[in-house]
Amino acid sequence: MAAQKSTQPATGKSAPDSTRRSEKSRRAIYDAALALVVEVGYPKTTIEGIAARAGVGKQTIYRWWSSKADVLMEAFLDLAEQSVQEPGPTPSAFPDTGDIAADVKDVLRATVDQMNDPRFDVPSRALAAEGVVNEQLGRELVARLMQPSLDLYIHRLRAAQDAGQVRADVDPRIALEFFISPLAQRWLQHTGPISHEYTDTLVDYALHGLAPR
Amino acid sequence: MAAQKSTQPATGKSAPDSTRRSEKSRRAIYDAALALVVEVGYPKTTIEGIAARAGVGKQTIYRWWSSKADVLMEAFLDLAEQSVQEPGPTPSAFPDTGDIAADVKDVLRATVDQMNDPRFDVPSRALAAEGVVNEQLGRELVARLMQPSLDLYIHRLRAAQDAGQVRADVDPRIALEFFISPLAQRWLQHTGPISHEYTDTLVDYALHGLAPR
Amino acid sequence: MAAQKSTQPATGKSAPDSTRRSEKSRRAIYDAALALVVEVGYPKTTIEGIAARAGVGKQTIYRWWSSKADVLMEAFLDLAEQSVQEPGPTPSAFPDTGDIAADVKDVLRATVDQMNDPRFDVPSRALAAEGVVNEQLGRELVARLMQPSLDLYIHRLRAAQDAGQVRADVDPRIALEFFISPLAQRWLQHTGPISHEYTDTLVDYALHGLAPR
Amino acid sequence: MAAQKSTQPATGKSAPDSTRRSEKSRRAIYDAALALVVEVGYPKTTIEGIAARAGVGKQTIYRWWSSKADVLMEAFLDLAEQSVQEPGPTPSAFPDTGDIAADVKDVLRATVDQMNDPRFDVPSRALAAEGVVNEQLGRELVARLMQPSLDLYIHRLRAAQDAGQVRADVDPRIALEFFISPLAQRWLQHTGPISHEYTDTLVDYALHGLAPR
DNA sequence: CCATAAACGAGACGGTACGTCTTGTCTTTCT
DNA sequence: AGAAAGACAAGACGTACCGTCTCGTTTATGG
Fold it and tell me: DNA binding happens at which residues (chains A, B, C, D) (predicted)?
């Protein structure tokens, strides 16, 4: 948004010069934002609170972000990028053992575990809530946070179609929703408990259908 | 702490006497809350604004509701109850033509239409967002707003099981999520367009499975 | 003030029938008002508080009095009337031993003592403050609370003039101010300490003048 | 509680930095406060009203003053300081023609005139009333507003003592009350009319005594 | 000895102001 | 010029009382 290509267009208020930006402040703001959201919840997390905790002037936040949600989104994205670079099984890769059922169950179990980790749960809940009500932010969230994961599903489902494990006439962008949406709804809206058994069941029902064969 | 005649627990601040409540004020508050949410959005809807628009003292709101979300939830419930009593096809009945696919498609098309009506979309989005972040409210929303509809799905799916159109070993409470959750996620999180074709596809995929038969 | 002689004039809102007034409530209101003023101070004494403490409906106060100050004034007058009927030296009599200096010193010493009694100090301070800012109430206070005492001074000073102890060309209504006003100002405005020595000095200075003879 | 560099005691809420205070806002607040008190009276003068009229946020008032009375006191002091710097007879000087009676009459006549000027009367009445009930404020009023004038009286009376026009054994701090207190009481408590004749009489009575010589 | 009407307790109501909190802007000072 | 610091105008928060207005419930004659 607001692609700041090069020599900024004269918009009255001259845009900040990102080359002189303080990296230390950025990190401190990310850390403070995430910590506060986890500790006191999103509504009680304020720009002032973040600035104070980060040891930063308020203006430094307003200069670089447009809203509390914006700060949190970037902080969360940054967190996600960091964890990618951690050792261990790269979460940005989708397993492909040849058994689509087993592979999807695997991924969903990991997702369930993540949803039960407050460091993930609280900020992403907050962002999701904001995105529900603020369409612009919502679309940005989908594009920057969710789409990469969804693409992995699509890719794996295409492979399953090639292997004859999923019907060729099925749209993978819809198919993946059978795995993700019920879990997402239970998680976000507290409509039901989430567990490994539950996601396993989802995969079985989705693949084989509700109707008798 | 003052003689407490019978029921409610003594909460220090004696509870208001609901028999003396002003029905006119309640209605005015519901109307103002819904109108404001639609007009200016949830975050800019304030208790002060509702009170002013309803021609009511702020205390009258605080006396009977605990938060902005609480007001809006009751206003929305009230709206739902009213529309039930309107003429036309009762939305609290689930069609049963004997064809589960057709019946579910029918209901989902109506749901899609509702989601495209701003009078429904804006307040329910606001409530859903609040419920994501506030678990207590979220559970209340599920219980009071969503559960009645879900029960209709469950009931219809059980009938379909009896009729042999849905496998007997399928849990209807999970099965219904294949119809509802993908649509809900697209709607709430803007993850994709919603249309009659889309929901029709959902029903077909869900009933017959993703895997080849 | 709004003399309600007999068959009241049709003023729209029919005046309350004072013959049916509850004496018990009146007493309870007086007691509550005086107690609250002493305990929490005048500004924190509220009509609601008085009503609650007296076990009385707010309307019962509004029916018979026009303001908080009005209640307190009547309560205080009532208190004064009661103390008159107590045994001991009647304060409504001014001593006349033939020695004007001694008699005035006597009375002023009693006044000093009264000013140091919180039961008198707090409510009368509150009333005086209100009277400073609200002329109507101020005049009523003077007429109903202060004038009777002032008249005793005038009477005694006239006697002193007859006895040749005070110059005949002196206006007693001004002369009495030399005794009363300095003390009143020190008391009300905290401009100085008040004591028996102080009032004795006042009397001496006033009688014999500041200039050398 | 946070590093407190040097002087002021750590009060939890760090004190505002008075070097960065907006002079424009201060002036606007003084003007608004005085204007409102004169126009609508003290009780109907509210902090919100002052802020609105001054075009200032409420917090800017609460940051620098502790109460409505505090604002008004400083506004009034500021007004007094300003009028000192005006041309004309400096009110901070007490005339000394050698005739103590004439000089005091002079000053009292000016005081009477001031009491009849609503710009002075209304705010100072309000402050006096507040000081009657709030001892802390009262003492501050005396020290900051009244004492300077009283000192002039004391100084002039000492000179009169040196000149043999006032008895040497008289305490000037008490003597001055004969001039000031009766006038103050008539003014504040509406116990009588105030005029030049009245104050002239006060001076004569006070100097020569009530008793025959 | 009721009938009836007023005063009463209780407290909900539309309002106003309180004093606090946070927002997003602006200004000052330091680096 | 960026950043820390924080004052500022604006305005919502939730609370406390205001003075008015019903509600039943005493209570106290007067028919």
Answer: 46-65
Residue with tokens 């964890």: A83
Nearest residue by alpha-carbon distance to C1' of F5: A57
Give ranges for CATH 1.10.357.10 in chain B. 73-208
Query: What distance in Å separates the CA atoms of residue D112 and residue D128, rounded to the nearest whole number?
Result: 16
- Which nucleotides on strand E sit less than 7 A from a protein beta carbon? 6-29
Helix axes C172-189, C100-115, angle to 10 degrees: 30
Beta carbons of A212 and B166 less than 8 Å apart = yes
> Phi and psi at residue A34, in whole multiples of 5°?
-65, -45
**DSSP alpha helix (H) spans, C14-99:** 23-40, 47-54, 58-64, 68-84
Examine the pLDDT at A8 and tell me if it is beyond 70.
no
Q: Calculate the average pLDDT of chain A.
A: 87
- CA angle, B162 as apex, B160 and B164 as ends, to 5°? 70
The reply to whether the CB atom of residue B67 sits less than 7 A from any atom in nucleic acid chain F is yes
Check the CA dihedral D93-D97-D99-D102 and report its sign.
negative
Q: Which of B190, B195, B202, B208 to mutate to test the interface with A (most CBs of A within 10 A)?
A: B190
D53 touches strand F (CB under 7 A): no
Nucleotides of F under 7 A from a protein CB: 1-23, 28
- Residue A17's φ and ψ, nearest 5 degrees, are -90, 105
AA letter at A97: T
Within a 10 A sphere around the Cβ of D155, how many other Cβ atoms?
13
At residue C3, the pLDDT reads 39
CA distances from A171 to B174, C104, C114, C177 (A): 22, 108, 95, 102
- Is domain B73-208 classified as CATH 1.10.357.10? yes
Q: Do A206 and B178 touch (CB under 8 A)?
A: yes
State the average pLDDT for chain C. 90
Instruction: Convert the pLDDT of each residue in C142-187 to its tens digit.
Output: 999 999 999 999 999 999 999 999 999 999 999 999 999 999 999 9
Q: C-alpha dihedral over C19, C22, C24, C29, to 10 degrees?
A: -110
Residues of chain D with CATH 1.10.10.60: 20-64
Q: Lowest-pLDDT range, B31-35, B120-124, C162-166, D107-111?
A: B120-124
- Shortest distance between the Cα of A108 and any Cα of chain B, in A, equals 16
**Separation of alpha carbons A57 and A36, rounded Å:** 17
Q: Hey, how many other C-beta atoms are within 10 angstroms of the C-beta on D41?
A: 14
- pTM, entire model: 0.87
Cα–Cα distance for residue pair B171/A205, rounded to 1 Å? 10
How close D28 comes to chain C (CA, Å)? 25
What token pair was written down for B54? 């309803």
CATH class of the domain whose range is D20-64: mainly alpha
Using CA atoms, how far apart are residues B186 and B192, in angstroms rounded to an integer?
A: 5
Asked if C59 CB < 7 A from strand E, the reply is yes
CA–CA dist C174, D210 (Å, integer): 10
Q: pLDDT digits over D41-82, tens only?
A: 999 999 999 999 999 999 999 999 999 999 999 999 999 887
Say yes or no: Cβ of D43 under 7 A from any atom of strand F: no
How many whole angstroms separate alpha carbon C7 and alpha carbon A188?
A: 72
By CB neighbour count within 10 A (0-12 exposed, 13-18 middle, 19+ buried), where does B193 fall?
exposed
- What's the pLDDT at C97? 96
> Backbone dihedral region of A146: left (phi > 0), alpha (psi from -120 to 50 degrees) or beta?
alpha
Quote the pLDDT of residue A204: 97
CA angle D126, C180, C168 (to 5 degrees): 130
Cβ contacts of D93 within 8 Å, gap of 6 or more: D152
